[in-house]
């Protein structure tokens, strides 16, 4: 069954965040940064995508989230007050269904966050065609189709945020295919910013550093690290960050909100790096 649950706005179920109108945007008498805006976020059931959905709802947006696991997606959407449309971004028919849902609801789209992505470990000698296809389908082709299929619904002046990674400019061993896929995503932001400027549509990339999410944990498990190994790996990475810790999904969400909102109205084709200073201060290996 296809999930298409509605919570806010327009129905009686209120997310927790809307109970505090004076501290969040979009409440009584307080202008939200995304009031009257409609946003679509791919990969909205966990991590950075979920934190972004929550932040956008707090700022007054109607938010559609998509993800493959229906139960997780529906539960996440209920929690933050978003609209769940189950689907796999690497399946064009699922993307059509997502945008058909928005169209059927009589809405245009003001913000697209192409966030769904995957990262698996493989040293060069172990890279298979399947490994390559997984990354380039999920991270590159899906990003392209998520944005391309949104075009007819995008309002003039819309904002597109592509979630890339600091890995796109780095060379972490064992992640060469992931790194290359994220470089492609960063490149899309420049080209599409040029192609869409006539409609005043801005396109920017967000490049997170290491952020504590289920996605990272899964990648480390898939790399064969046991619990102690994962702890050590995480501690090593934290020590290489000038701010001496991992990032939090909410911090990425705040940066995505900046790129999505009028606060960044004169910024396009840009890569915003949110990594605790590691790239700028040259501490990544
Ligand atoms: N965490 C980090 O340190 C970090 C650093 C740099 C960049 N990033 C990037 O940030 C993005 C989000 O990562 P995260 O760490 O927040 O990961 P996460 O917690 O694993 O969340 C990934 C989300 O994407 C969804 N997803 C994955 N493949 C999908 C597909 N084919 N179709 C639809 N939805 C899909 C997942 O739901 P389902 O599995 O149910 O589909 C989930 O909702 C990714 O693009 C990642 O590469 C993360």
What would your notes on this structure say?
This protein is α/β, with parallel strands linked by helices. It has helices at 47-58, 70-80, 92-104, 129-148, 176-196, 214-222, 227-239, 249-260, and strands spanning 4-5, 38-42, 62-66, 83-85, 109-114, 154-163, 202-208, 271-274. Strands 1-4-3-2-5-6-7-8 form an eight-stranded mixed β-sheet, sandwiched between helices. Strand 6 (154-163), helix 5 (176-196) and strand 7 form a beta-alpha-beta unit. Helix 4 packs parallel to helix 5 (176-196). The radius of gyration is 18 Å and the shape is globular. The chain binds NADP nicotinamide-adenine-dinucleotide phosphate. NADP nicotinamide-adenine-dinucleotide phosphate binds at residues 42-49, 66-69, 72, 88-90, 115-119, 138, 142, 163, 165, 208, 210-211, 213-216.
Keywords:
single chain, 285 residues, alpha/beta, Rossmann fold, 8-stranded mixed sheet, 8 helices, 8 strands, binds NADP nicotinamide-adenine-dinucleotide phosphate, oxidoreductase, KR_dom, SDR_fam, NAD(P)-dependent dehydrogenase (Short-subunit alcohol dehydrogenase family)
